[in-house]
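In keeping with the milestone schedule agreed at the kick-off meeting, the structural modelling team has produced records for the first pair of proteins. Each record is given below as a sequence line and a structure-token line. The laboratory manager (R.T.) confirmed that both were archived under the project's standard naming scheme.
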Amino acid sequence: MRELKSDGRLSNVQLAERINMSPSACLRRVQELEKSGIISGYRAVIDSAKIGRAVTVYVSVGLARHRKQDQAEFEKAMYLAEEVVECHNISGMVEYLLRVEVKSLEDYKRFHTDILGTVSVVSSIVSHFVMGSPKNDRG
């Protein structure tokens, strides 16, 4: 799993060589991991800055009420917001943690005002701007 997480484009033969296994046994093992859902998919890792999204912001969002329909309203709005690349329902002082990627501070201000600011159930917003990422193993 570590080898595939590092490079999901490895051929079965390359993977088998790296983990000292026969190609047929390696293929069966990978297929079992896929079938069981341990490996849920493969994807490309995109450099956000190179596609014009140089600003990453983690946003803590609190809701005014804790009703199921309020959560559904908020989650739908975040699903539709292209700036939101991750939305997590969390425990603690707030209900949600977002990872937002935008081109500039001005674009974040627009998102903050025009998207988050229009969701009626939002009661608090705290923004944390990423200054650097010395470790990023999200893949």
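The second protein of the pair:
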Amino acid sequence: MKLVCSKCNKNYRDDYSESSSERVITSGICDDCANFFLWPNRPTLTDFLDRFDAPIVAIDSLGNVITASQRARELLQKELSDIERLQGGNVFECAFAKLPEGCGKTIHCDGCTIRNTVMDTLNTGKSHSKIPAGLSHGTSDDCVEIQLLISTEKINDVVMLRIDSIS
């Protein structure tokens, strides 16, 4: 019997005996893959995002922020604990997210380029690059329009929203 790693397909044990056949079993895992996939100190998604120079925010299928890179947290002037599990509009301090209906539920949200781009990437898997987007930042009574260039990419069920430029 041959034991083949289910992750890398490497043969990691041959066990030939009179009674065994040349059967291949692929439900095991080799030492190299076990060390990689079961590594106890594996970097977190936040650690991974911190490797990039651009501000990146990871958003789940409900529009909630999962995590953000250090550069994104610096840009937002927020700690990670202040943004995790919040709707994107609340994290970016969209003026309309503070209305009673909340982020994603006001009449303004239908035209939000940031929201529409993220949701399109979530629904279709299509990446977008350097899309011009406006953000009404502040409150509905006192807001400043911020212009952004954003890019999105879907990885599994998460959208990575990169802020390419801000003015």
